[in-house]
Amino acid sequence: MRAQLTRRTLFSLVLGLLLLSPAAEAAAATCRCSTSYGQLLGQLRSQADLMKDTSRLLDPFIRSQGLDTPVLRGSCKECSRAFPSEDALRRLSRQGFLRTVSATLNDVLQRLAALQQHLLKGKNVPEMQVATRNIQGVRNNIYCMLELLTNCSETPEPLLPGTAATLTPPTPSFWFRLEGCQFLCGYHSFMGSVGQVFGEWGDSLSGNRTHSPRRRALYKGARRARPSRRVKRPVPRGQLFR
What are the start and end residues of every segment in region (Disordered) (predicted)? Predict the structure, then answer.
């Protein structure tokens, strides 16, 4: 009987270690992945639109940290510049964009954990937990979208600089609280930029993001704005200028 219990215990431990491994996580994500490009893109657009809303994380943080005054709230809205800009995101290939967003959101998860530990003192903050789940959901969908794009001919490119430089928290203080709310402001702004770029993606898997309807319209507008060359018509023989 003891031998059976020992074998079961060892089996449970091995199974637990396997489930914690990156390969097992990837396999589990693959099993849950949708094979519909349109469905994944729609979910990513909706998630980005939801996560740019400051009332879901930044505003509750401001109130909980005693920063809810006109002056301090204005300082909080001076968003951190630690995030990639919208223009920089738009210049990336689709795969490069997805990898950059996923890596940046991973940094955000670490920063949220630091804020939870140093400022919120481990308190159960529903908004923080919801934000964490939303970020994990976006990263899962990004993983699935990358799986669909693996057959594309896009060349892998390096990730844009993320938020890693801001992850080490200083001693908890007023300035750390202010830095925290500016970071969250930057996070919401970043998700707004992510939503804008996703909105420019074509609705089919074969569509190229750089050939989105918006870019085509801009290109046509630029062509129309070019000064036209005036072509001189030849003067018929025998016709004289007066």
Answer: 219-242
Helix (DSSP H) and strand (DSSP E) numbers for the chain: 10, 0
How many structural domains comprise the chain?
1
User: Within a 13 Å sphere around the CA of 95, how many CA atoms are in the beta-carbon half?
Assistant: 13
Query: Which candidate, 59, 98, 76, 80, places its Cα nearest to that of 167?
Result: 80
pTM of the model: 0.70
SS3 state at 166:
helix
Residue 180 has pLDDT above 90, yes or no: yes
What pLDDT was estimated at residue 120? 81
- Of 113, 144, 149, give the one whose Cα is nearest residue 131: 113
Instruction: Say which CATH number the domain at 109 has.
Output: 1.20.1250.10
Q: How many percent of the chain have pLDDT more than 70?
A: 63
Sign of CA dihedral 23, 101, 137, 46: negative
Whether 192 and 48 have beta carbons less than 8 Å apart is answered as: yes
- Kind plus residue range of the DSSP H or E element containing 226: none
Q: Quote the CA–CA distance of 229 and 238 in Å, as a whole number.
A: 27
16 domain-assigned: no
| Nearest Cα to Cα of residue 48 among 3, 102, 127, 109 | 102
Structural domain that includes position 156: 35-201
